[in-house]
Amino acid sequence: TNLTVITGINFVSGSNIISVYPNPFDDVIVLSMENISETKVDAELFDVAGKSICSWNNVAVQKQLKLKPKSIVPGTYLLNVKSGNKIYRALLVKE
Fold first, then answer.
1. Residue 51: helix, strand or coil by DSSP?
2. Could you give the CA distance from residue 46 to residue 53 in angstroms, rounded to a whole number?
3. 10 Å Cβ neighbour count for 55?
4. For residue 50, how many C-alpha atoms fall within 13 Å in the half-sphere facing its CB?
5. Max Cα–Cα distance, the chain, nearest Å
6. pLDDT in tens, 17-56
């Protein structure tokens, strides 16, 4: 039996347009979106089975946007952020 401990993942596909932190997170996910040209974004959090856990629609772009997913258990999640016709993905760990 092998045990792998993940202490943090720093990955946002699609370039350095969006930064996501802290990772691992506890109650709040912060998106730094200083380079986004759109005025609104959609974000969706998925579990490892691909089930949508939380979503935020038509959120105004800010330098730092705080997302607060409710009642999720510790584990690994995928965050999709859609800006215009682009999707940015981040792999996150919930403590």
1. coil
2. 5
3. 13
4. 0
5. 48
6. 788 999 999 999 999 887 788 899 999 999 999 999 999 9
